[in-house]
Design brief:
There is one protein chain. The chain is α+β, with helices and mostly antiparallel strands. It is 26% helix and 26% strand. The protein has one domain. Strand 2 and strand 3 form a beta hairpin. It is globular, with a radius of gyration of 11 Å. The model has no long low-confidence stretch (mean pLDDT 94). It comes from Photobacterium kishitanii. This is Thymidylate kinase.
């Protein structure tokens, strides 16, 4: 989902957690846990998962959605 779509879900209290984790390729991705279960990734308008070069950049995107706290997943 795009940043705008995720902000909408957050405003309606449908997202309960923000998570930054290592990407399969390189860098970091941002995912959000939906209140009904499952993870929703941050994507661009074409539906491709967004990848960031460092944890801080990825974390900033979770803050943009509205979260005050972000869980950082270990690489292992």
């Amino acid at each position: 989902m795009t940043l705008t779509e995720l902000k909408h879900l957050y405003a309606h209290q449908d997202l309960v957690e923000a998570l930054v984790e290592p990407s399969i390729n390189s860098g970091y991705i941002v995912e959000f846990r939906h209140r009904r279960g499952g993870l929703v990734p941050l994507t661009d308008i074409c539906g491709s998962e967004q990848c960031y070069g460092d944890v801080d950049s990825a974390t900033q995107q979770a803050f943009e959605v509205g979260f005050q706290q972000v869980r950082i997943a270990d690489e292992y």
